[in-house]
Specification:
By secondary structure, the chain is α/β, with parallel strands linked by helices. It is built from seven helices and eleven strands. It has a single domain, classed as Spore Coat Polysaccharide Biosynthesis Protein SpsA, Chain A (Alpha-Beta Complex). The radius of gyration is 17 Å and the shape is globular.
Length: 229
Amino acid sequence: MKIKTALILCAGLGKRLNPLTLKTPKPLLELKNITMLESCINLIIKLGIEKIYLNTFHLGGQIFDFIKIKNFPINIQIVEDGKEILNTGGGILNMINRYQDNDYLIFNPDTLWNKNYINEINEMQNFYFSKKLNNILLVAKKQLSFDKNLRGDFQLKDNLLKKNDNKDYIYIGCQILNKNLFEKYNVKNFSILEIWNELLKKNELNGFESLNKFYHLTDLETFKKLKDF
């Protein structure tokens, strides 16, 4: 089995990157002469995904124009959050409610995605389907993070994520989720952390380890360092 649809979360305000993000949405900030969003889309295309849905809120018109001008060789549809921002959980649900797929590959475009992730994400997909899972998060040891201020999110053992004193792994912005995880939720402002925390309580939050160096657009200071890197 193979996932057909990817989601890209593009609705955030990017406050930690002010003043840059007052006029430019975070996914359209450039590193190495390419926007974060384009790097993400290029990876998704290389993964053989058939279609992309992305959500917008803050300065969404710029993202719409960017997608139109670039004319990427993949079906991309834009879903607006609406009058109020929906956060990560609400934004995902607002997109998947419109479509029939059961499993979605979900990306944060504030990670600097590149072709080195192709094999890992394909292996994560294979693991997800072979184990008949309904969730899995791509994580990396925090030592691999370019931004040394990032704290760990989880401990990883036997592909299960836990929260304890030794949080050595960071979620790096790619996950696979099944639609059934959202059954009791409505489209409103809520974080995907709510679903993760429910899964953690049941010891059912799954992780897959990335061995790539992790570059993340955390804040203005990190962005400046990455531009000089």
